[in-house]
Amino acid sequence: MKKFKLILNLFVLTTTFNIIYGSQCTQDYQCGTYPYAACNGALNLGYGIAYNSNNKNLIVSGKYNSSDYGPFGYPYIFDLSTNVNNGSEATLETKNKISGEILYPGAGFTTFYKIYQYAPIHNYLYITFYQAGSNIYAMYDQATSTIKQILNIWGIPFTVGINKEETMTVFGEYGIYLINTIPKERSDFLNATVLYQNQITNGIILDGKDIYISTYDGKFYLGNTDCRNCTQDKLKLIYTDSSAQTSTGFLKVNDMIYYSNEGGIKGFSTQGDHPVQLTNDSISSMTTDGEKIYYITTGTTTSSFTNNGVVKSVTLPTPSSESNKPTLIYTPKSDNQCQCAVGFTGDKCEKCDGKVLWFNGIPQCTPINPVTGYPETCYTSQDCSNSQFINCNSNSHCECLPGFTATKNDCICSNGEVVWTQGYPSCVNHTSTQ
Questions:
Q1: Which InterPro entries would you find in this protein's record (predicted)?
Q2: Is the same domain home to 94 and 154?
């Protein structure tokens, strides 16, 4: 468990149900002045899809293009209906916008990555962010509309499986571990019990006491939660597929295991026989309601979102019937609504109650911290203030240089003298050096 690392300042994001859209539009100029405002163009679907058994909808994510340019504004969480009849497509409902992205390519670069999984009893949506070389595993609590970082994952092949009752969790991280709860805090993972040593996984399922895992060499194993600090050879090999070295989904439905990647969706029985292939579509992610598998196809990758990806479903085979051909249920499209650039408000989206930051010709309005007077987010040290003694740190937050003391809008050398060495300032306390 030593490979988990937590960012020093807790990464907390907020979402809101009150998404401000303007009037109907087809072109950016109808919404105000681009790039402060834009008309939503094509929708780029994000990675990850989950089934919500509470309302029988799918949960997907995405970011709109502007009508004339690329991805613009916030990423969103959507509800997608599953009751598709007579050739009609599913309806998409916007639920939340996700704040907190920092798209400037520095050490604080942070972008929404994917929907990881949904826990319907607790109403928790687990999602991941990508931040400057690592993944952030986070929990979106829909009761409080907040997103809380649980883990910062540095170079670890990390997978999580929660049981149906949402009382136990297994996860893979250079070993297979057990926690007797649903993950809510970093400490939940730190207090985990080792089940199997050193095993690396790219998919994991917890079903009762049974643990099903997939690996990067295309092998599938069965384990048990009763094992304690067991060696890898205690896992039972149940299936091998040399083409399954990558994984975009891993599900168990009744006595069948299904897995997906760019080669489609395949399956086999829990006894390791009866192999099936449900589709040859290249799969970005998949989920199930127990009767169908719903999946997003792989489109042209743009950052953490996919262009041209669509949502399809395929009915699972039963002892008396084979699976049907996949059915297209949703093609992403524009909602023809105006959207402000991140942080901006007003009829024409030109009001910023904070500091305007620019990257690639797109503005972002970040709030000002009322205590420090600094912007909540910075791209460069010049964004923080005119002070020579302040720095934009690796988390894109303003902070004083070592030895300097923060005052509102500035950093000062309160107990010494500023000494410059090769253009770099230091606050030297002469009394302490005598």
A1: SrfA-induced_signal (IPR053369)
A2: yes
d(C-alpha 377, C-alpha 278), whole Å? 46
Whole-number Å distance between alpha carbons of 267 and 291: 14
pLDDT digits (tens, 9 = 90+) for 76-92: 999 999 988 777 889 99
Residue 51 to residues 54, 80, 89, 115, 434, Cα–Cα distance (Å) = 9, 9, 17, 11, 68
| 193 CB-near residues (< 8 Å, 6+ apart) | 177, 178, 179, 228
**427: Cα separation from own chain's centroid:** 41
* Residue 145 confidence (pLDDT): 66
Six-digit token pair at 251? 């599900």
271-280 long-range contacts, Cβ below 8 Å, gap at least 24?
Answer: 271/238, 272/220, 272/238, 272/239, 275/239, 276/317, 276/323, 278/314, 278/316, 278/317, 278/323, 278/326, 279/312, 279/314, 279/326
Read off the pLDDT of each residue in 409-430 and give the average, rounded to a whole number: 90
CATH number (domain holding residue 228):
2.120.10.60
Domain count, the chain: 2
Q: Are 31 and 105 within one domain? A: yes
Query: Residue 117 in 3-state DSSP?
Result: strand
The domain containing residue 57 runs over which residues?
Answer: 12-338
Q: Name the band, by pLDDT with cuts 50, 70 and 90, for residue 131.
A: confident
∠ CA(414), CA(420), CA(422), 5° rounding? 150
